[in-house]
Amino acid sequence: MSKVTSALVIGGGIAGPVTALALARAGIRATVYEARDSAADGAGAMLSLAPNGLDALRIVGADEAVRAVGQPVPGVVMADGAGNRLAEFGGFPGLPPTLAMPRAALFRALADHATAAGVRIDHGRRLVHAEETSEGVTATFADGTTATADVLIGADGIRSTVRTLIDPGAPGPEYGGVLSFGGYADDGGVRAEPGVMHFAFGRTFIGYWRLPDGRVCWFASLPRTEPLTYAEVVRVPAADWLARLRDLYAGHVPGEKLLAGTGPADLMITGPMERMPSVPRWHRGRMVLVGDAAHAPSSSSGQGASLAVESAVELARCLRDLPPAEAFAAFERLRRPRVEMVGGDAAAKNKAKAGQAGDRPAMPAPEQMFAPVHLHHIDWDAPVTAQAGEDRTGKSG
């Protein structure tokens, strides 16, 4: 197969627009096809974008657009459920701060930036089938329309249609043992310095930071053995979930105060915490997966969005320099060790969130914890060879 000049990108969340931007920089024309009727406005709750994600966004010129919608939270404090501080970290010198933001704001910022840069994003186009030939791949959408290009890239999230087209036996999302919630609390005397993300472990886990308006935004976990779908969770009144959370966090510092200062209208229901187990096949023929479709870690990682951005840029590098089959293989070798390392660490953290790690979880120093993820850098200008990633070091190139 010859070098790629055109691509169909399925999914307009995070990985999709960034993939299209990176492909454009690589000289490859890409169109994004999104099943939703708009740029996911109102979808999801809060998320963070780490320094490594911002570094990758800088390569495609989208970092400033994202900074405009994010709140810098460079510091980290870890504590136990009694309020004892266990570790503090101020970030690595020279790196940008982690940004916290609503997921919908990130979606919109990336979509707007991509559109302004000339990327075409077609909404209301839900993929149902794809057919390959020796010359390209044709996507068929639910409205009966089709589109053809050299390759098809599945950036369609944790419930990816493209993943099942590549491998009908591919695994689906894996439940992490907890339901996830967030909320906005009145101050209530909670110690939360501006620009610092706090993580407090106890019988379960709560994270929180102070917003510019003085309120405290928090995210918490409710252990549950039997999973519920998101639709089932939202059918339960918010007041009922809040009552259960208050009962679980009774005596927890500062969980008890945060939940007491949150009303039902300020509760964010995220639903079941899920992650992708190891996906055996990332690509087949002219189709490949990127972002959450291939490697969604649970939200415990704090790296879901950042890893998706990294992978989008790396995939474009590979397609810039190699024909599809070799590019996809090199992409997987470059990315799989890193994303599975992060995903495995997040799965271990889920035990603490489910109350299985005790009140004082064993943890490395923050510098050791964050260095492998935050210090990662992609060298866009380095050529990608067919042997890229074979040393399994996780370095880009």
Low-confidence stretches: none
Radius of gyration: 21 Å
Strand content: 25-35%
Strand order of the largest sheet: 6-5-14-15-16-13-17
Helix content: 25-40%
The largest sheet, given as strand count, sense and whether it forms a barrel, is: 7 strands, mixed
How many beta strands in the DSSP annotation? 19
Helix/strand/pairing category: alpha/beta
| Straight-line N-to-C gap | 22 Å
Average pLDDT metric: 92
Shape: globular
Per DSSP, the total helix count is 12
Domain FAD-binding: 5-173, 280-319
Organism: Microbispora bryophytorum subsp. camponoti
Pfam family, one: FAD_binding_3
InterPro entries: FAD-bd (IPR002938), FAD-dep_Monooxygenase_BioMet (IPR050493), FAD/NAD-bd_sf (IPR036188)
Which short descriptors sum up this protein?
single chain; 397 residues; alpha/beta; seven-stranded mixed β-sheet; six-stranded mixed β-sheet; 19 strands; 32% helix; globular
Explain how this protein is built:
- Keywords: Monooxygenase, Oxidoreductase.
- One of its GO terms (molecular function) is monooxygenase activity.
- Residues 5-173, 280-319 form the FAD-binding domain.
- It is built from twelve helices and 19 strands.
- The chain has helices at 15-25, 51-59, 63-67, 103-116, 161-166, 230-235, 238-248, 255-260, 292-295, 304-321, 324-353, 366-374; strands spanning 6-10, 29-34, 46-49, 71-72, 75-80, 85-89, 99-102, 120-123, 127-132, 137-141, 146-149, 151-154, 174-185, 196-201, 205-210, 216-223, 267-275, 283-284, 287-289.
- Strands 6-5-14-15-16-13-17 form a seven-stranded mixed beta sheet. Strands 8-2-1-12-19-18 form a six-stranded mixed beta sheet. A three-stranded antiparallel beta sheet has the order 3-7-4.
- Strand 14 (196-201) and strand 15 form a beta hairpin.
- The longest helix has 30 residues, at 324-353.
- It is globular and about 65 Å long.
